[in-house]
Amino acid sequence: MAKTDSASPGRVAAFRTGISAESRAAALLIAKGYRILARRFRTPFGEIDLVVRRRNLLAFVEVKARASLDDAAYAVTPRQQLRIINAAQAWLMAHPEHAEFELRFDAVLIAPKSLPRHLLAAFDASP
Q1: For residues 60 and 80, what is the distance between their CA atoms, to the nearest angstrom?
Q2: Could you give the CA distance from residue 127 to residue 109 in angstroms, rounded to a whole number?
Q3: Structural domains of the chain, ranges and CATH numbers in brackets
Q4: Residue of 10, 107, 112, 126 with fewest CB within 10 Å of its CB?
Q5: Which burial class, exposed, middle or buried, applies to 51 when counting CB atoms under 10 A from its CB (0-12, 13-18, 19+)?
Q6: What integer pLDDT is reported at residue 6 of this predicted model?
């Protein structure tokens, strides 16, 4: 039996939901005065959904889309936070011009029939 390379319909739907959520999050952040520096920045450690800047602040943003805002908030697990922190270090090594900026790890929560919620300093890189 031949193996197909196509993704399952569920994975395709999840991917589309993620892209839509990231676009909504980016629009919210732009409206708040942030500039998008990177989208879906991939590293061997993991992916950063959005890297944004406002003045001398650099924020690494995790976007979560779930059925409710609470579900989205709980979806940013400690293990995932560690992957994002490691990916952020890789981003900073690739972009040393931002090394002296204030750094923050934010989250944007997306749920149906709700306005996106931007959580400032959703988690930190302290051990």
Answers
A1: 13
A2: 24
A3: 9-123 (3.40.1350.10)
A4: 126
A5: buried
A6: 54
